[in-house]
Amino acid sequence: MNAALRRTGSRLGMAGWLLAVWLLLWGRIDALTVIGGVIAVVLAYAVSRLPVVPLAARVRPVRLAEAALEFAWDLVASSIVIGWHALRAPRRIQGAIIEVDARSRSEIILLAVTTSISLRPGTLLVDLDWDRSILRIHAMPVRSPREAGAARDGVLGTERRLMRALVTPDDTRPEER
């Protein structure tokens, strides 16, 4: 896919997303609301430089469903762990800043990973070095190097699942495209 087509697809995707948010904010779908949303999107593009959203070259639906189920399981499990520690000994919960070297160079994968870990109870993105694909996360509870390694492995597992589900040009070798 050439760069101009990819940029156009990305802009249309962002426009569709903005229109969907507009409709959700209004809470109804009728001709006047849709026309107003289209005008708002056109104005947003005219007065600002909205970023180009990277696209996935290929989406694997089964792998994406697996990633979504594993994310749901991670939400439940981390909520239980954090809740248990908060009720048992709230003053003794220890956290750590953990550096994770991501394998992906794709902005869409890194964005999905950082969103995923920030939505989970007990983890939060602190810093992201886009150039080197290094994530710094705050994780809790972390009381030992072994638990820090487990938190790092959890982030890398999320990245691995998302890389299998969303094939991007930045992460594929030329012979795989």
TrEMBL record:
Source domain of life: Bacteria
Membrane topology classification: Multi-pass membrane protein
Record-linked Pfam families: MNHE
Gene Ontology MF annotations: monoatomic cation transmembrane transporter activity
Residue ranges crossing the lipid bilayer per the database entry: none
UniProt GO cellular component terms: plasma membrane
Subcellular location: Cell membrane
InterPro entries assigned: Cation_antiport_E (IPR002758)
Keyword Transmembrane helix carried by entry: yes
Keywords: Cell membrane, Membrane, Transmembrane, Transmembrane helix
PANTHER family, per database record: NA(+)/H(+) ANTIPORTER SUBUNIT E1, NA(+)_H(+) ANTIPORTER SUBUNIT E1
Family to which this protein belongs: Belongs to the CPA3 antiporters (TC 2.A.63) subunit E family.
Record protein name field: Na+/H+ antiporter subunit E
